[in-house]
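note to self: dont lose this again. the chain is below, predicted strucutre after it. 187 aa total, dont forget to put it in the shared folder this time
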Amino acid sequence: MVADSGFARQIEEQPESEKALVSAPARILVVEDEGIVGLDIQSKLEAMGYDVPTVVSTAQDAIASAERLRPDLVLMDIQLEGDMDDVDAAERIGADYEIPVVCLTAYSDETTLARAKTAQTFGYLLKPFEERELYTTVEIALFRHRAGSEKAELEERVCQAQKMEAVGQLSAGIAHHFNLILQGIIG
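---
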């Protein structure tokens, strides 16, 4: 369960100038096989201003919901019940849909930590956690994902600019040679 510290109230009381910096609330998919815990996390996130359209309880439902809803972030328990491995689901959500995943777990043993690392997640949150820890983890994961996406976009723009520069240089070279040929023909 998430401890109630009144932290969501502090977020709501932010000055309007700070709220204006955020466009639409981030959409978060919660994947938790303990129903009451999932609903509690959903409630806390919504109180913090996030959009949490659903809580699902299996890895299969997580993948289907990620495809359908395209959330900005997935909070996923890494000890889910069911046929499909939760780490595989986290990897697939990240790879197929480019959605960051934060692992939630009540276990801090080396095996669980190693599984979380394997999934290449954007964070790891040990249950039970405080609201502030949840908020901080979500914000950092969202920021890291946005920064990574912006970096990839800038790298793509640089690559395109370099290609255009090469085409321009090639065109200039061809035009120069064509002019030389024309001068030789015309005299």
